[in-house]
Amino acid sequence: MEQKQQQKRMMKKRKKICNFCLNETNSLDYKDLNKIKKFISERGKILPRRVTGNCAKHQRLVTTAIKRARIMALLSFVEE
User: Is 28 a residue whose pLDDT tops 90?
Assistant: First the structure.
């Protein structure tokens, strides 16, 4: 029992830092597919903030860029 509690104390989660805030780049374009594909799962779903580590502001920019790229047929809606 005590070992489990010690293991929980030892495992501290590192705070994820937003890459866009770190590099001070606010520009995320729907045409830049290399950046956008980092935020899409294997199935084609948009990854959540807790996985990517983005702040709320930049997560909104990422989602709008992905949705625009899908509408312009640069990205597929579903990966097969």
Answer: no
